[in-house]
Amino acid sequence: MAHNHIIPLDRLTAAMHLVVRGFGSHDEEVRLVAGNLIEANLTGHDSHGIGMLPRYAEAYLEGGLFPNRHVQTVVDAGALLRLDGQAGFGQVIGREAMALGIERARRHGSCIVALGNSHHIGRIGAWAEQATAAGLVSIHLVNVVARNVVAPFGGGDARFGTNPVCIGVPLAGRPPVILDFATSMIAQGKTRVAHNKGEPVAPGCLIDDQGRDTQDPRYSVIPPWGALLTFGTHKGYGLAVMCELLGGALAAGMTQRDADASKRRVLNGMLCVLLDPAALGGTEAFEREAAAFVDWVKASPPRAGVEEVLVAGEPERAARAQRSAQGVPVDATTWQEILEAARKLGVDPQAVQQAAGLA
Ligand SMILES: NC(=O)c1ccc[n+]([C@@H]2O[C@H](COP(=O)([O-])OP(=O)(O)OC[C@H]3O[C@@H](n4cnc5c(N)ncnc54)[C@H](O)[C@@H]3O)[C@@H](O)[C@H]2O)c1
User: Fold this and answer.
1) Which residues are CB-contacts of 126 (< 8 A; sequence separation ≥ 6)?
2) 315 CA closest ligand 1 atom index
3) Cβ distance 134 to 106 under 8 Å?
4) Which of 54, 55, 104, 160 is deepest in the core (most CB within 10 A)?
5) Binding site membership of 184 for ligand 1 (Cβ less than 6 Å)
6) Whole-angstrom distance, CA of residue 33 vs CA of residue 101
């Protein structure tokens, strides 16, 4: 099994800035792309962290990802925005889209943002954090246009992506609640890890190329393709469909139907609802009840084997604190893939290695 490098945050940041410069990105884009990916690693979501850079490099080199692009406004109806991401870096497009929506929600009390044609916008929780930091509630339904990896409930092959759903709620005087998950049982990255380790995945996560239950992760990693299953049987499946209908068809004019599986680019569509609690009135009651309810659920006596009852957002904050202080684990396979991506982008892998303190 590949061992982990533990890379201090400042070293990792310097190294990833070098790699992202290889895309020809301007300084601000370098900072946003590297920062967003490292933040995903910090929060414990390595599947959406720096390990995405090799995929981004392939997408860029095949002409599916365009550096230095900005969000374009297609429809501006005040509290309703339709935006086009121009297949630019989602780390930039997502941030700009949220900033536009936040400004409108502050002005009008709420805003609906329909974003289409953005390259991969990464960990959706980052966008909910941007909204809650501005005091706003945000709801995100996201579709993924790339290779099909998830089967419909009862279906025997993959028909859509891991379509994430995210909801952020600001709490007065304390950190927000950030619910942020894929609608598949497990992230696709987890099947790759299990495959590399030669381990089975848990039962009920995967079907093979004949639509039969399997625990062999290969069916999500190499052909012949099987499919991941949605979480919560028909319920998670229903959410995934809504991500396509609203984040895809409505917001982006593009669903995962018949997507070109040979392409390495990952496009996301997102429908985002932003709401200023103050504009609804009753702020005091909202703030009191929301905080009291969180305390109430957390006071449930933990069952055997459970240390503490948590609410969404807490695991990510704990991981961020720990990894910021002690360094970010990066497995050796992922690190090699990043060095190889750097080379393809015209960046000296040795310089990346040195910047990370691994030379
Ligand atoms: N851009 C894309 O195309 C895309 C696609 C799929 C997923 N993603 C991202 O992948 C990331 C990982 O998704 P995932 O499904 O593997 O996440 P996950 O299964 O780790 O679930 C994460 C959510 O569950 C909460 N949670 C975890 N443990 C908890 C506990 N014990 N008690 C209460 N809440 C708890 C977390 O705070 C978080 O809100 C997400 O950030 C998602 O946005 C992005």
Assistant:
1) 36, 39, 40, 94
2) 37
3) yes
4) 160
5) no
6) 20
Outline where the chain has alpha helix (H): 9-21, 27-42, 53-61, 90-108, 125-133, 188-197, 233-242, 251-252, 283-298, 314-326, 332-344, 349-355
Ligand 1 in reach of 98 Cβ (< 6 A) = no
Is the distance from CB of 117 to CB of 85 less than 8 angstroms?
yes
Is omega for the bond preceding 175 within 30 degrees of 0, making it cis? no
CA atoms within 13 A on the CB side of 156: 4
CA of 315 to the centre of ligand 1 (A): 10
Rounded to an integer, what distance in angstroms lies between the CA atom of residue 257 and that of residue 259?
6
Residue from 269, 225, 10 nearest 121 by CA: 269
108 Cα: distance to centroid of ligand 1 (angstroms): 30
Coil, strand or helix at 137? strand
Please spell the DSSP secondary structure of 239-295, one letter per residue. Answer: HHHHIIIIIIIIHHS--STT--TT----EEEEEEEEE-GGGGS-HHHHHHHHHHHHH
Would the CB of 41 count as within 6 Å of ligand 1? no
Please name the residue whose Cα sits nearest to atom 13 of ligand 1. Answer: 181
How much of the chain, in percent, has pLDDT values that exceed 90? 92
Question: Which domains can be identified in the chain, with CATH numbers?
Answer: 71-184+230-287 (3.30.1370.60)
For residue 259, give the amino acid letter: A
Does the pLDDT value for residue 34 go beyond 60? yes
Q: Do 40 and 126 meet the contact criterion of CB atoms below 8 Å apart?
A: yes
- Output the six-digit token pair for 140: 């995100």
Q: Which pLDDT value is given to residue 2?
A: 53
Among protein residues, the one with the nearest Cα to ligand 1's atom 35 is 312
| CA quadruple 202, 205, 210, 212: dihedral sign | positive
